[in-house]
């Protein structure tokens, strides 16, 4: 089953943007993410609507983060990208006639709800500032090099 990696990808893009002091174009971000600029524009358009990023057109324009990293949580981003499904598992049949399957579904449904609530709560605790700090700690643990950009995908 294919996994939905949108949240991971969007967080990745946002952290690349946070490392830059100047606006980043869709083409620059697409290159960093090894994707197409149209994918970046689609993703960031939703984040712009949520107030997390800002875009400027024209020479010197591009995308910037519109809020402090400590004010944006993984939950905020998850909500902004449309709350994709967190669980890859599900019930075999949603409205079974079999009493055994009804019992199984009830237990699974409770477990899925509990797991989703726990995961969403954790998303709400992790800010982009915490992710950026983790990145910087990992970068500092590596051997020194002249630029941050070499460490990002190195």
UniProtKB/TrEMBL annotation:
GO terms for cellular component: cytosol. This is Rrf2 family protein. InterPro entries: Tscrpt_reg_Rrf2, WH-like_DNA-bd_sf, WH_DNA-bd_sf. The lineage of its organism: Bacteria, Pseudomonadati, Pseudomonadota, Alphaproteobacteria, Sphingomonadales. Pfam families: Rrf2 (PF02082). It comes from the Bacteria. GO terms for molecular function: DNA-binding transcription factor activity.
């Amino acid at each position: 089953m294919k996994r939905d990696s949108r949240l991971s990808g969007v967080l990745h893009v946002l952290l690349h943007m946070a490392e830059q002091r100047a606006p980043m174009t869709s083409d620059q971000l697409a290159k960093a993410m090894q994707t197409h600029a149209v994918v970046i524009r689609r993703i960031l358009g939703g984040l712009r609507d949520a107030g997390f990023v800002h875009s400027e057109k024209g020479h010197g324009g591009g995308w910037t983060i519109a809020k402090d990293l400590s004010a944006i949580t993984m939950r905020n981003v998850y909500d902004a990208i449309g709350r994709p499904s967190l669980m890859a598992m599900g019930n075999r049949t949603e409205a079974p006639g079999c009493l055994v399957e009804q019992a199984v579904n009830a237990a699974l449904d409770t477990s899925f709800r509990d797991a989703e609530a726990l995961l969403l709560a954790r998303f709400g605790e992790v800010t982009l500032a915490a992710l950026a700090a983790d990145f910087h700690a990992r970068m500092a643990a590596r051997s020194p090099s002249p630029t941050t950009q070499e460490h990002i995908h190195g």
